From TrEMBL:
Start and end residues of each HTH tetR-type domain: 10-70
Keyword annotations: DNA-binding, Transcription, Transcription regulation
Pfam families linked to this entry: TetR_C_41 (PF21351), TetR_N (PF00440)
InterPro entries, sorted: Homeodomain-like_sf, HTH-type_TetR-like_transc_reg, HTH_TetR, Rv0078-like_C
Protein name per the record: TetR/AcrR family transcriptional regulator
Organism: Streptomyces pactum
Signal peptide: none
Annotated DNA-binding residue span(s): 33-52
Amino acid sequence: MAVSRARQRAATRQALLDEGRRRFAADGYHQVVLAEVASAAGVTKGAAYHHFASKAGLFRAVVAEVQRELGERVATAAGHHEELWEQLRAGCRAFLAAGSDPAVRRILLIDAPTVLGWDEWRALDEESSARHLTDILAALAGAGIIADEPVEPLARLLSGAMNESALWIARGGDPRAAERALDRLLAGLRTPAGAPPGPGG
């Protein structure tokens, strides 16, 4: 019985998350009504309040879920490569490509910073994709491919640039142009010793 109830609670929570995610992505945070999310998910309004306490609580959980999935996309893309530099490029490109995902665009890039506040949004970002960026930059610095300097300010600069680029892509910008600009930006980070050999090198 206890196992059955736990499964039912988990199923109810996931149904609310799924419906909330769909509505937040399509309509934006301020147009969503928690009672309507509950009704569409096939559960009571009381169940929605039990699991998330408020619309903001549901939104926070949805943001965490989308952030986690984005971090997994970035890590998976990077993991397809052995060379550290290619891991960085692949992870950054995967992040930019996510700008075409309505959930990432509306929930993470537009609504989350204002609804949750900058500090909480940054904390969630750091737990997912931003953490992978910091880790790979530290590895590149350790290998002498980029300058061996503190990576946190660099990670924040790159993260901000990629957030803006992902939004630009989501609003109709050319993904290939964004990738070319990203490659030029990243190329400027390489030390002479870490640069790839030229023709005949």
